[in-house]
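Morning. Coffee machine broken again, so started the prediction first thing and wrote up yesterday's gels while waiting. Chain of 154 residues, entered below exactly as on the submission form.
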Amino acid sequence: MKRTLFCFLILALMCALSSSGARPLSNGAGEKILAIEKQLWEAWTKNDGKTFDENLSQDYVYADARGVLNRTATIKMITSDTCGEKTLSINNEKIVWLDRTTALVTSGVRLQATCNGQHQSENIVCSSVYVQRRGKWWQAFHQESVAPTTTEAH
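Came back before lunch.
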């Protein structure tokens, strides 16, 4: 957990230092990226692999406390998830432009689901990297870390 959080903080720092006023190639790009991010989260609640297939880059990487997955393994994980009644709320979305065709999205997400008859709820901190290729925005990387409760924070 500490290693994942440390890696996330290093990534965020590198992004902040390298942004130096970068702007997207087109107006409305930020809105398009945030719309894709929301689509992917909604697709997760429905185990909808098609939406992921249409929006993840071929070199996509997913990382969380369980490990690192490629595109194929991520889509399989999404479609084979046995938890039901999934809901979520997204907050504090921010975009940092790394260059004109690359953006980092950070957000908080409150997840709730019923898994094996047990209600589960957690807050996570997420980061996603989007790249523009052949005129389309693709999610190339997504990372999730469980957010500490207020009593655990330092």
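Strands lie at 56-64, 67-70, 84-99, 102-115, 118-133, 136-146. Going to sketch it on the whiteboard this afternoon.
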